[in-house]
């Protein structure tokens, strides 16, 4: 946010101020003044002695000579001589002023010229500012008056408050001018005029006196209040998101380095001005012409980017900016030009994804396009290509200029340029520049073979240098003498570098015509020229001051604000000691760096600096990277660098704000003084972050070696992590922690960094930005289990998060255990970018590329080395069934359900070939095969084979796979088609209907081999087949249980095979056969003529995928239970189980100890590192996707049935993380229910029996026999106070009593029962009240309440879909009925009345799975299909909290003042709920999700129970009838970013 203050602020006391001697006179004015002194020859001689004519000024001027020109000792430390020189100068200055004023009084000069001689600096400033244009209405003016002067307070005592002459007497002329100034100010009468009167005491103001203290307090109070009021007025309506927040990036297109060429206030307008980078651009006409011609010729064609390269300082930036400006006349009207100067913020190196994001949004805004739906970091290269294609499709013209791409950050391996589009559509042009000796240029030459796209910026010629020098000097209204010009050009000709010339001209502008050549200090190279400039600065200002100021600017990560630089130099004791070497500070208790010294230095280094406007503030930085490097080399020695970094770190820590800092001044002992530096809070105000602290502090703490402070203030501060992730993006925090890990040997830092990496996909899933409560919850849910083993950082971080959540002003759920994948485990990264499930994956080993195809028809390409998305390959209109990386890793093929085969370049993502009818449409993934030979592509299914050339030309196609030449002679094949078994080399192996196997070459029909198994005439029913190219065989498993080996020579053998596999594959070396069937994965040794089994690996669920390492030592298997298992091939031992996948694992690959896994039910590809630290292995949990579960309320045990067909109940010990007990059952389990207090586990079986396990008596089992009808059990419900239990069968519901006999639990009954109507849908959920009423719902949405006491029942409001959960409050007063649709109803039970209807619609899955009331029944918790836990207020029905947990919650129980739940993934969730007494009226529970909800409540004023809208407005409650409209255009009230 830009803080705007008042334009003019004036403080006027009783001094008129200094009337200084002018430094420069125009020639005509000075000659006129001299003519007035014609009679005073001595005076005229004195003037001509001190003012010399400078013919280098245009027009010529007379310049005041430095004091050292005539008083040499004045600049030396010579004690008395120095004082004498200073006194002599004062007398000379007074004499010169008197001469000039007397000459001006003679007339002949203008009033403005006379004002420069007669008035003070203060008078002129007030006149030009506050009094300009009739007065400034926003001005703030303070005027102080001294009512009377005591006789004893002579002029000497009042010297600080009155103007005195050189003789020490009161300056009457100054007092007269002061009176006139006051009269003009009072006549202007600004609105904020403050008059104060104070009587001085002993020539000053004494704060101990009461009247003086009141005066000071009044001045300060008025100043602060009026300044705040002015700021508030100026910023009214400007409040928004946190300053620099990523939530505002979609609106803030310009990031300070780019603008549209047509913008009047854009970058190019600034660059092309007379004071800008291009104001004096000359030369390079030939290169500019070549670039313009290349752009023009490629306008209507697909083409590649243009590359401009050259040595550092060769002028590439100026050339590209001039080209961008010139393209206005070349491109069509309305063309969009986007410029990014990537080296403009050195030493900061911009992140490539942030650059691409800004470019995409810039283009969309300029071209009138809708922003891409997803601007995630992983998809940015693809988004840029889509935007460019859309601009071209619409006929727009676009030019993108990216300067210094070699200066991008190393993050995301930007220097490899994989993000750079290699082929551009028509009317879209891209220019990039880089240094010739950079790694980026080397990669550019490797990636792009077209040498015509490379343009080198060569050295400037002597003539071009002369023209540039003349133009530059002319714009500065300067010139050079012939000798000076010749010397400058000779120095430049040795290099021909524009930067060298720029340094020469920076120095030459300060040369006067009388400056001797010996004092020009020219260097033969750019480096020497910089050294000469530094030496000149050191002579004028001192080495300590120059080195300190320039060093701090060079060390700053994002530059320094001018106020920050003055503050930091005030904290530097070496600079302060140098400043006050000869005199004491005016106030020893308050020491600041004198602003006058900085003003002098700033004037002399103005040509070396630039102002970078970032986030509304101007930061100082060097205008070239080479200059920053030269400053570092000259001034920042190891010792100086460390000390400066420490001062910078302490400044941004705010360590010395309001504290006294010691300093040792010459001639004094240690002095404690306040340096008056500002505090550095993390937040200036709510929602307004201290961005400067976020940008600078981590870097300086790290490199200053302040690692304890780094751990405390940055790494271990949850507030810091959240604040920076909100303002600068989560990737910026990860980048900071990456740098910390390079210097700190701290495992906790790496774990926190990995936790943030795991959180990053959550932001992509939410498509929004986390607020603080959700961010803290995510951290706690991942790091909670690591708090005890790592207390110093992670423990403190978790404590901070928990403490904040428990005291939050808003409702919040506080995790009490880790239920999300923790960092440090095997799961390293989630590759995102695809939509839909992943059907196929392949790895290009040489280039380390991963290719995956999704059911949405998209092929994604990632780099395994840097985990970055390289390409999204679009073209298929059906699910991608198979992908294959070709041997060179430069190309890949993809087959899709739309019947097409497409070839792609992995280098640039371009489509190389397309065959539309390569296979039957809507083929199944398991039936599609893709085989590559040296010259041909084979695409085959069970019924069809097609052979293509590598360029896509069709060579052969057949749906019967019979050799047509032999078809007429083979009568036995006419009764049916054939089945393709595989391809060996270039021969197709097919099985005919008669049982004949034919092996033939599809092109020429040669080498046909036919074979049959013995004399058998029975047709072979194929289950699975696999080819072994090295052995020249095909393995076929038949339905009859045999493994058939068919060789290329026709040899056919068959052996009994122990299983019918659903998965069949061989290892790369063809030594091991893998066969998966149901829960078993079997391994077989492949011998020459036999296959022998040697391992059977048992799984808890169906085996879906498997692969073996290249050395055949490790086996990786994926199963439907969402686990990845690592086995030893030699011993069969289970080495590891990797949990963290939320879906069944349908694909696995093993690449260099990294497991790649994917699922047809998830869009992400997971990377698992097998070399992780086992100490960080996440604890084991309940298997995912259990058929039935029950959770103990104290969260120590979970009971589950893995499969519906499983005949045992397993008890899981949560604390130990393992199975503790197996409870056998006699039939399939249909329901599990746990009586929490009496510790009884009820298991309803398909036989109608209910088994009851007393958990306190492990060896005992109770039984409720089945009903006479032997109906299966549908539901079991334990009543309130656990006195009764209801059992629902298919045709009836029975009531039983739970009691004790001889301290042994028993179940008696049935006490009562009622039949269920035959036409009623089966029960799906029910709850038993303590008064023996049963509330139940059915699969068709009916809800009924049956009273066992009276035998009567009543129907309640029906749901539109199956009732999924029915729960009753702990006190029996309320019940919640939830269904699979978006509606849930809260009923009051005494009396029976509908309290609230809560409708919730999200943009993902809907429907309630489970629910639980809080202990006091004040809240109700629900777990939903959309992978969230929601909290509702029972009294009002309002939604209080929505917490994403990344997996559907299938079971939930009350836990103390919160809940314990079990996710579908098998993780146990323990949380407490914090809710303040009053929820603020503008609180929105949907701020972190994309959803809407509505609550309809009964009118409590009427007792008829009629429904009416809730009177309590909530900003998230919206009309759900307009959901379709909201999906197209989400409301800002419900989609909180």
Can you offer a commentary on this structure?
This protein has a six-stranded antiparallel sheet with strand order 68-69-70-71-79-80, with no helix packed on it. The two termini are 18 Å apart. The protein is 26% helix and 29% strand. Mean pLDDT is 85; it is low at 1-6, 239-278, 961-975 and 1504-1537. The protein is globular. The protein is an alpha+beta fold. The longest helix has 26 residues, at 80-105.
Overall mean pLDDT score? 85
What structural class should be given to the helix and strand makeup?
alpha+beta
Query: How many strand elements?
Result: 80
Which strand order do you get reading across the main beta sheet? 68-69-70-71-79-80
Taking the sheet with the most strands, its summary is: 6 strands, antiparallel
What is the topology?
Layout: E1 9-12, E2 24-26, H1 27-36, H2 41-50, E3 51-54, E4 61-64, H3 80-105, H4 111-118, H5 121-128, E5 140-145, H6 172-188, E6 192-197, H7 210-234, H8 267-271, H9 285-297, E7 306-310, H10 316-330, E8 336-341, H11 352-367, H12 380-393, E9 398-403, E10 428-435, H13 439-447, E11 454-457, H14 462-475, H15 482-493, H16 498-508, H17 526-541, H18 543-555, E12 560-561, H19 562-571, H20 573-579, H21 595-604, E13 609-614, E14 617-622, H22 625-635, H23 638-653, E15 660-664, E16 670-674, E17 683-685, E18 688-689, H24 691-703, H25 707-715, H26 718-728, H27 730-743, H28 747-766, H29 772-783, H30 791-806, E19 812-815, E20 827-831, E21 838-844, E22 849-854, E23 859-863, E24 868-873, E25 880-885, E26 891-896, E27 901-905, E28 911-915, E29 929-932, E30 936-940, E31 945-949, E32 954-958, H31 964-967, E33 978-984, E34 987-992, E35 997-1000, E36 1009-1011, E37 1022-1028, E38 1033-1038, E39 1042-1047, E40 1052-1056, E41 1063-1066, E42 1072-1077, E43 1080-1086, E44 1091-1098, E45 1103-1108, E46 1114-1119, E47 1124-1128, E48 1134-1138, E49 1147-1151, ...
Helix pairs in contact: 1-3, 9-10, 11-12, 15-16, 16-17, 17-18, 18-22, 18-23, 23-24, 24-25, 26-27, 27-28, 28-29, 29-30
């Amino acid at each position: 946010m830009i803080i705007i203050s008042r334009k003019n602020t004036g403080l006027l006391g009783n001094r008129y101020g200094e009337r200084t001697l002018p430094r420069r006179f125009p020639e005509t004015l000075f000659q006129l003044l001299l003519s007035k002194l014609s009679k005073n020859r001595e005076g005229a001689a004195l003037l001509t002695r001190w003012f010399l004519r400078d013919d280098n000024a245009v027009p010529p001027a007379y310049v005041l000579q430095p004091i050292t020109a005539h008083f040499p000792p004045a600049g030396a430390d010579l004690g008395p001589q120095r004082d004498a020189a200073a006194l002599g100068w004062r007398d000379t200055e007074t004499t010169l002023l008197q001469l000039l004023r007397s000459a001006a009084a003679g007339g002949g000069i203008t009033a403005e010229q006379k004002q420069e001689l007669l008035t003070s600096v203060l008078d002129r400033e007030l006149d030009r500012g506050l009094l300009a244009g009739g007065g400034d209405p926003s001005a703030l003016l303070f005027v102080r008056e001294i009512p009377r002067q005591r006789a004893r307070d002579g002029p000497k005592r009042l010297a600080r408050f009155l103007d005195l002459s050189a003789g020490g007497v009161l300056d009457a002329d100054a007092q007269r001018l002061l009176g006139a100034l006051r009269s003009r100010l009072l006549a202007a009468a600004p609105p904020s005029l403050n008059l104060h009167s104070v009587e001085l005491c002993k020539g000053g103001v004494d704060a101990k006196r009461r009247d003086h203290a009141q005066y000071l307090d009044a001045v300060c109070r008025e100043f602060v209040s009026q300044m705040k009021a002015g700021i508030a007025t100026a910023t009214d309506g400007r409040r928004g998101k946190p300053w620099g927040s990523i939530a505002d990036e979609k609106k803030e297109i310009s990031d300070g380095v780019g603008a549209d060429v047509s913008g009047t206030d854009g970058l190019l307008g600034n660059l092309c001005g007379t004071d800008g980078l291009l104001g004096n651009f000359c030369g390079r006409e030939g290169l500019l012409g070549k670039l313009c011609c290349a752009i023009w010729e490629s306008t209507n064609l697909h083409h590649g980017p243009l590359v401009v390269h050259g040595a550092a300082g060769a002028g590439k930036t100026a050339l590209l900016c001039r080209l961008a400006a010139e393209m206005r006349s070349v491109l069509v009207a309305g063309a969009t030009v986007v410029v990014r100067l990537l080296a403009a913020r050195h030493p900061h190196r911009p992140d490539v994804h942030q650059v691409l994001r800004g470019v995409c949004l810039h283009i969309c805004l300029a071209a009138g396009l809708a922003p891409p739906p997803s601007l995630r970091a992983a998809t940015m290269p693809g988004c840029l290509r889509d935007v460019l294609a859309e601009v071209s499709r619409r006929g727009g013209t676009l030019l993108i200029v990216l300067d210094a791409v070699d200066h991008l950050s190393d993050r995301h391996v930007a220097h490899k340029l994989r993000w750079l589009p290699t082929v551009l559509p028509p009317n879209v042009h891209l220019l990039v520049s880089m240094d010739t000796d950079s790694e980026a240029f080397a990669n550019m030459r490797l990636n792009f073979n077209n040498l015509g796209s490379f343009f080198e910026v060569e050295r400037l010629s002597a003539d071009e240098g002369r023209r540039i020098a003349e133009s530059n000097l002319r714009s500065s209204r300067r010139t050079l003498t012939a000798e000076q010009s010749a010397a400058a050009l000779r120095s430049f000709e040795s290099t021909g570098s524009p930067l060298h010339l720029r340094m020469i001209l920076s120095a030459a502008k300060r040369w006067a015509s009388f400056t001797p050549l010996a004092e020009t200090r020219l260097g033969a190279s750019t480096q020497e020229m910089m050294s000469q400039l530094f030496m000149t600065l050191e002579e004028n200002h001192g080495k300590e001051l120059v080195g300190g100021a320039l060093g701090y600017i060079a060390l700053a990560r994002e530059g320094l604000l001018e106020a920050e630089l003055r503050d930091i130099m005030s904290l530097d004791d070496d600079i302060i000691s140098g400043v006050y070497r000869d005199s004491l500070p005016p106030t020893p208790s308050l020491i600041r760096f004198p602003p006058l010294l900085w003003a002098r230095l700033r004037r002399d280094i103005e040509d070396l600096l630039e102002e970078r406007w970032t986030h509304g503030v101007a930061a100082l930085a060097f205008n070239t990277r080479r200059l920053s490097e030269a400053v570092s080399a000259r001034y920042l020695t190891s010792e100086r660098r460390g000390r400066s970094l420490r001062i910078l770190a302490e400044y941004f820590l705010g360590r010395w704000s309001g504290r006294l800092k010691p300093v040792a001044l010459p001639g004094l002992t240690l002095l404690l003084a306040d340096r008056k530096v500002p505090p550095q809070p993390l937040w200036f105000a709510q929602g307004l972050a201290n961005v400067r602290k976020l940008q600078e502090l981590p870097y300086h703490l790290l490199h200053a070696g302040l690692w304890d402070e780094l751990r405390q203030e940055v790494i271990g501060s949850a507030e810091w992590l959240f604040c920076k992730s909100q303002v600068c993006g989560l990737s910026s925090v990860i980048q900071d922690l990456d740098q910390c890990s390079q210097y700190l040997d701290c495992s906790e830092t790496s774990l926190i960094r990995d936790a943030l990496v795991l959180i990053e996909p959550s932001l992509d899933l939410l498509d929004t930005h986390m607020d603080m409560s959700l961010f803290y919850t995510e951290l706690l849910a991942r790091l909670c289990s690591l708090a005890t083993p790592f207390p110093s950082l992670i423990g403190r971080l978790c404590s901070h998060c928990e403490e904040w959540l428990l005291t939050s002003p808003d409702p919040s759920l506080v995790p009490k255990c880790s239920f999300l994948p923790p960092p440090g485990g095997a799961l390293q990264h989630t590759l995102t970018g695809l939509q839909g499930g992943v059907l196929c994956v392949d790895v290009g080993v040489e280039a380390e590329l991963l290719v995956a195809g999704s059911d949405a028809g998209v092929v994604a390409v990632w780099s395994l080395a840097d985990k970055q998305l390289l390409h999204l390959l679009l073209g298929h209109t059906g699910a991608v069934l198979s992908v294959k990386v070709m041997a060179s890793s430069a190309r890949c093929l993809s087959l899709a359900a739309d019947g097409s085969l497409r070839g792609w370049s992995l280098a640039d993502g371009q489509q190389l070939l397309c065959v539309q009818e390569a296979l039957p449409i809507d083929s199944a993934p398991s039936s599609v095969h893709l085989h590559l030979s040296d010259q041909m592509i084979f695409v085959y299914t069970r019924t069809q084979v097609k052979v293509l050339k590598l360029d896509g030309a069709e060579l052969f196609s057949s749906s019967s796979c019979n050799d047509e030449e032999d078809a007429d002679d083979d009568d036995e094949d006419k009764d049916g088609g054939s089945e393709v078994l595989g391809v060996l080399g270039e021969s197709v192996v097919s099985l005919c209907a008669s049982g004949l196997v034919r092996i033939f070459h599809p092109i020429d029909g040669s080498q046909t081999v036919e074979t049959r198994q013995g004399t058998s005439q029975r047709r072979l029913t194929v289950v699975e087949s696999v080819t072994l190219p090295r052995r020249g065989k095909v393995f076929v498993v038949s339905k009859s249980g045999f493994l058939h080996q068919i060789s290329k020579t026709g040899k056919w053998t068959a052996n009994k095979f122990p299983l019918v596999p659903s998965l069949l594959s061989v290892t790369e070396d063809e030594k091991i056969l893998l066969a998966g069937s149901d829960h078993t994965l079997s391994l077989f040794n492949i011998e020459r003529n036999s296959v022998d089994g040697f391992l059977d690996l048992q799984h808890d669920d169906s085996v879906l995928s498997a692969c073996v390492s290249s050395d055949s030592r490790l086996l990786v298997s994926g199963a439907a239970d969402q686990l990845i298992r690592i086995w030893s091939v030699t011993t069969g031992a289970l080495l590891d189980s990797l949990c963290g996948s939320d879906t069944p694992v349908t694909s696995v690959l093993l690449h260099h100890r990294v497991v790649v896994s994917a699922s047809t039910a998830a869009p992400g590809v997971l990377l698992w590192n097998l070399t992780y630290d086992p100490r960080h292995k996440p604890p084991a949990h309940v298997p995912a996707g259990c058929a039935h579960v029950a959770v103990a309320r104290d969260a120590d045990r979970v009971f589950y049935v893995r499969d519906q067909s499983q005949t045992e109940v397993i008890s899981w010990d949560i604390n130990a993380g393992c199975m503790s007990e197996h409870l056998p059952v006699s039939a399939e389990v249909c329901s599990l229910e746990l009586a929490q207090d009496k510790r009884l586990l009820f298991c309803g079986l398909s036989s109608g029996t209910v088994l009851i396990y007393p958990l306190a008596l492990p060896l005992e089992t109770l039984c409720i026999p089945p009903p006479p009808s032997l109906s299966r059990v549908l539901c079991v419900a334990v009543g309130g106070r656990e006195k009764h239990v209801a059992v629902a069968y298919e045709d009836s519901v029975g009531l039983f009593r739970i009691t004790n006999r001889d301290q042994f639990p028993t179940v008696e009954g049935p006490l009562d029962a009622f039949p269920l109507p035959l036409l009623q849908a089966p029960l799906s959920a029910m709850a038993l009240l303590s008064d023996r009423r049963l509330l139940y719902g059915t699969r068709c949405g009916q809800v009924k309440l049956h009273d066992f006491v009276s035998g009567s029942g009543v129907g309640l409001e029906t749901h539109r879909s199956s009732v999924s959960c029915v729960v009753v409050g702990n006190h029996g007063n309320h019940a919640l009925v939830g269904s699979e649709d978006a509606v849930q109803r809260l009923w009051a039970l005494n009396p029976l009345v509908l309290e609230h209807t809560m409708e919730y619609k999200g943009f993902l899955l809907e429907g309630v799975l489970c629910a639980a009331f809080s202990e006091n029944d004040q809240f109700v918790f629900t777990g939903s299909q959309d992978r969230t836990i929601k909290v509702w207020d029972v009294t009002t029905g309002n939604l209080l909290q929505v917490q994403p947990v990344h997996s559907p919650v299938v079971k939930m129980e009350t836990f103390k003042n919160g809940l314990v739940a079990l996710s579908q993934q098998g993780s146990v969730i323990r949380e407490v709920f914090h809710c303040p007494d009053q929820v603020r009226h503008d609180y929105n529970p949907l701020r972190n999700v994309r959803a809407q909800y509505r609550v309809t409540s009964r009118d409590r004023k009427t007792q008829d129970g009629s429904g009416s809208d809730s009177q309590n407005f909530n900003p998230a409650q919206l009309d759900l009838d307009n959901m379709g409209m909201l999906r197209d255009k989400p409301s800002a009230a419900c989609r909180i970013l």
